[in-house]
Design brief:
This protein has five helices and three strands. The chain is α+β, with helices and mostly antiparallel strands. The two termini are about 30 Å apart.
């Protein structure tokens, strides 16, 4: 899921690595991540861009974007996401991304993150 990948991407690497090692990869759709290497490649991209996505991986036709929320100790403590039908979501992707990242910044700031 988008939220699950956000947690894996933005938690400390050792912690996310321990979680990834326990995953039993199952195929829900033809786009589902099938192995650890593929997942780790996606997570690295998410770290660079600051948000994660689920592109029809849990359900065909469903697209999700998720962003991390940090506390004053710079630790990810939550994530927020928006999901919906892929056509509608992709047509608004840039706007949704900007709004989610801005909301994340505001929430993180309220939790002491600078």
């Amino acid at each position: 899921t988008g939220l699950g990948k956000a947690f894996l991407a933005f938690l400390p690497r050792q912690e996310s690595g321990e979680i990834i090692d326990q995953i039993e990869f199952e195929g829900y759709t033809k786009k589902t991540v099938r192995n650890k290497e593929e997942l780790e490649k996606q997570l690295e991209q998410f770290r660079k861009q600051g948000y994660s996505i689920d592109n029809e991986e849990i359900e065909e036709g469903l697209w999700c974007i998720a962003v991390p929320v940090y506390d004053g100790s710079r630790r990810m403590v939550a994530a927020i996401s928006v999901s919906g039908p892929i056509d509608r979501m992709l047509s608004k992707k840039d706007k949704l991304t900007r709004e989610l990242l801005e909301t994340s910044r505001k929430l993180s700031g309220q939790l002491g993150y600078h």
